[in-house]
Amino acid sequence: MEGDVQLIEGAGGLFVPLNNKSETWADFLAETGVPVIVVALAGLGTLNHTSLTIEALQRREVPILGIVLNGETHEANQESLKRMLPQHAIHAFPNLPELDQHADWEKAAGELTSFLVAAVENAALTR
User: Fold this and answer.
1) How far apart, in whole angstroms, are the C-alpha atoms of residue 73 and residue 71?
2) Is 1 among the domain residues?
3) CB 37 within 8 A of CB 69
4) Is residue 31 part of a domain?
């Protein structure tokens, strides 16, 4: 990968106001064109929530690098999103409640890092 990569966490969702003018993350992303990795909960509600988020980003022509499903693995939701949003790479990051599970954390973090690097590299190639 060439160049520096910076991460910006847009906690709270696309329509959280960022200032007293009620400008939102969606406004910021549309203005700057910063590529996005959507992070969504893996469980109940994610099909609707993730689809609406992707639609809002696409409407604003914000580049989408991929989707990370966070939390307890829900294979049916993951498969449904793959069918619903086939143009987007999807990665599941499991729920790892025990901090003493070092090997599990290292494996999950390594897989997530590989997914993110591939998403950034793929975006750089398609520009």
Assistant:
1) 6
2) no
3) no
4) yes
